[in-house]
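User: Okay, second chain of the day. Same drill as before: sequence in, structure tokens out.
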Amino acid sequence: MTHPTQALHIPDTQSERDERHLAIQRVGVRNVRYPIVLRVGGAVQNSIAHWDLDVGLPAERKGTHMSRFVGWLDSLREPLDVMMLRLETARMLALLNATEGRVE
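Assistant: Same drill. Structure tokens below.
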């Protein structure tokens, strides 16, 4: 009998090499409503944010799966201030193998 995880394996084609050599200027998600914890002036505040997240990908990348953006949001554990947002944005770029991107 085949194990369910083997039978349901779907290859991640978005991470495969793209031989067409077409760079993707911006790929991402818009208007994702997701919780946020902010640190403002030393105080911590819980809220809901509407996120627009995108990255630019080099020509050898086919794309990225949109769930990776939501996975990044879900991994934010520390309250965000300006410095923490910069660090986390850099981590998002590394997670998506991108050299540039935006967080709004």
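The chain has a mean pLDDT of 84.

User: Thanks, on to the next one.
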